[in-house]
Specification:
By secondary structure, the protein is mainly beta. Among the domains are: 42 residues; 188 residues, no CATH class. It has a 24-stranded antiparallel β-barrel.
Amino acid sequence: MHESEGTSRLIKVERLSLEAECLKDLFRKIEVLPMIEKTVRTGFVLLVLLVLAERSFCNFPPFNGKWKGEITSRFTDSENLESRILFEYGGLKLLATEIRNGNNSTIHGLGFSSHVFTYGPLKTDGFLKEWERPHGYSPGSSVFTEETGIGLDTSLSPVGRYGAVLSVVPEHFMLFFMRKRGEEDCTAGGLFKINPYDFIRMDSLLVLTEYKHGPSVNAKEDTWFLSTPFLTDGYILSASGKVQIEVSNYSISLAGALSGGNHLSPGVFTRVYMSYISKLFSTALFAGGSSPEYWLPEGGYPEEELAGGGALNLFPDSAVEPGFEFAGKLLRLSPVPSPYRKSELSYSFKPKIKAGFFMCTPLWRRKYSLLPTGDILMEEKIEEELKFTGKKAGITLKVGVIRTNIGTFGITYKGDLLLSPDPFNFNISSSIDAGKEIEINGRFRIDLRLKTGSIFFSLYTREGIKVADRIFENPTDFFDFSMGWKMQGG
């Protein structure tokens, strides 16, 4: 009896292990992310139908609020057509974008945004943007002080990040899930924001990124060595936080993040930012650093290990406003053995001279770079910007000279003309970059203002025309044009 019971138990255990292996194989074959995306899309359609049903049958107030709409199309060459439809009403946004290549039509993006739920192409603001690219902003950037958030990207060409955001507690706690277009790697996390006092804002973030195929991050095709090693299949877990205190004219912000995961050592990132504004001057300072083991939330190392800088503007809102700025960076060790650590130091002087409708802004900037070979590269830029702004016209001219200590020399030019005779707006802009090769960019746009919106048409160069190219043989290879209709009511 005991032997038969033991044998039956062994058979049950073997069956359970076999069933478990079958389930594992089944989950491996099922593509989870496409299933989630299809489910979210189905839920989006059902949500729109429910909203329409509620407005139709549940005695909702009449449609009397302010609304905006936009239809835009862009022809990128003789076959490709990009289109976007955007509708906004109160806190509600509906977005649809499409790319049509010849006879094949592909949906490029479908978006919906409300106070509670967002789905579609996403963009980040504030600390989320800095967290994705630490040490990547100048001292005068608004990224250090703007509110942290994640929302719908309504641009015609989104950055390529798609997902969903659920505001569990609007403006305080949200959950998000996103991934890049065409990739299986996915990121999920939560953002928690509180304001314990009027002068204190606190943000905390917890994110998990899962990798499917172990991408080679930060690798360049034109280099022999990879700047970072291959990341095998696994995950990256990142926890970060920010505290911002604003009292009177003072502002101070402290931020930090921790990263880790399987096959990864723990890493840390820290940053401090301070600013002060008065009638006599305004100043801002920041400093930050990351350990060699710190990984970015979407994979890869930050290029810099240490970074700092400052900005000073004297006599704000006066006729003459001198401005100074400096920044320094200590870059990560090169994978090629070298006794020198690549680093950068730059400083600039940019006064503003204003008189009525006229403004003059000269710029002098110098940048020093220590290369892994031990050589020092110096780049100097001298630029002059003239700007005139009137009621019906405006013109901006910017001319610059760039030189280095190794003999290279370049000239840049940029011009912008705006004319607004009723009921039209004309905008003509052009730029020239004359270095080793001469590149020309240009754009022409015309807007026809209507009582309830406007119609616009724009023609512009694609990526810069090189003078050596024979552009008139096939102009569609160099020029794009777009047209659209903006409307509003309420």
